Amino acid sequence: MTGQLFISILFGTLFLIIIIFRVLEPAYLLLFNKPLYIHWYPLSKRLKSNQRQILVKNFPFYNRLSPKRKMYFEHRVKEFIANYQFLGNKIIITEQMQILIAATYVMLTFGMRNYLVSLFDKIIIYPSSYFSTVNQEYHRGEFNPKMKAIVFSWEDFLLGHETSNDNVNLGLHEFSHVLHFHCLKSNDPSAIVFFDEFNEVIKYYTDQNLNKELQQKGYFRLYAYENQFEFLSVILEHFFETPRIFKNTHLELYAHLVKMINFKEEYLN
Known about the structure:
alpha/beta
């Protein structure tokens, strides 16, 4: 009898979960334009004390989070480091590198449920700018889908991280490319929201009048207008580095970005 009761409860729970995901979440997504939930970690993982101190000393975003959300953030950082390989080219990989790179990605995707993606499986780090065989030029960073790799010049990554008001952040830039590609192909709830809002965001690049207005105000650096991929990455750099100026200068575009990555504004400066 006990065994039968357990099986009944188990199947009842599974049925309820199926109902939530197949019926309730699509309805919730339609009404509120965001997933039903974001963070749920039955076996939450915490960073070691010395790892946490790297965040405390070097990552203001983490310090602005509530204690509960700091736990979520740490779990995601730890999962990121466990899921992706870090490779140094003429440089030794340090714990600080892993934590800061992982935290940058987690910050960008903190409002999205499915944050670990399969578009890359390794992060290659050079000491400084490196010669790329892709186009025979020196690069500071890149996302290479064929190699399933993110590549960084550590010198430039660190400069972008430490200089928080120039709207140039190499880590955010390259990870934005990853997020863009992922959400164009995925159908998970966060990706659906991202894609819907991206269609509104990209009008500021494709629409002649909107594009002209952006360029006249001169807030975004010229590299934003290279193509739609660079446009998104550059404006996301601005979104995280100078959010108040962004909001005051381009309110509607700012609002689309908030919805696109399901972001809470209190996390920003």
